[in-house]
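lol ok so funny story. i was supposed to be doing the assay writeup but got distracted and ended up predicting the structure for this chain instead. priorities right. anyway since i did it might as well share w the group, maybe its usefull for someone
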Amino acid sequence: MNRPAECIACLINSRTGDLREAGLGEEAYYHTLLSLSNLILKSRTRAFSESFRVIAEASGKNDPYWEKKQVLNSLAQRVLELIEGEEMREEDLLRLGAAANSFDTSVLGYEFNPESFSLEKLQEPLAIDETGKIVWEKIGTIAYVLDNSGEAVIDAFIITKLSELGYRVLAVAREDPYEIDVTATELEKILGKGAEVLKSRGNLSPLYALERDTLVGKRLREADLIIAKGIANLEGYIDSGRWLKDKAFFLLRAKCPVIARAFEVQKGSPIAIMEETAWKNSQRIKWNGVTASV
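and the output, tada:
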């Protein structure tokens, strides 16, 4: 697959940002940039996930952002308390999930300011809203694939509410740390006892091709609806072909210029889109530059 030059720039920006955050020196920069020169030939999903393992090794921490993730969870909890008592139907919950996809540390050109995260941010209108296209009467089991910490607290609220509406909800998260993404172990603590949590292997997106033949892949195929959060899960799916055609539904903010162009929205806009829309619009991106392998 080819990718826009912005994806390469974003990868370099993300990992050098991780190095600055960790306070690492010249040797770590040299080793990381050398690794990136090889990883950049892989798919976007693998290049980003495998390069983060390089950062973890260089920092000596399995989860370099653990402390930051706890701060973001506390921030989200304070804002969530302002809406917890509101009555919400399915469409309302999905809109909330899309708007909550504000948290991030590693997208080129997108800066998340914790001080700006507020109730107004959660109530921001969607630039694309396809929540009304879901036929809820045909839905029994939902697989909910999570993204970042912080918003994971709000996702847990959404999962609980969907369960109260009568759906069986399987929460899906990565097993190993990746940037500020919530891990399956962290998610189990947020959701509490009784929640069904599935962990994908390593730190790859649960929607990436390597999960097709795993237990997670089986559960995803069996679900009536897959709600996937964030750019990384969208890209993991696009990188892998339409292996969950007609099941997936994506909630995200178009944080990067590539995604914003693909969906013809302002950068940072929240969108809620069907699988068909996600696939169709992703094919409109003018790919160029390096050819990557899955």
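The CA atoms of residues 16 and 206 lie 25 Å apart. Confidence is low (pLDDT under 50) at residues 287-294.
back to the writeup now i swear
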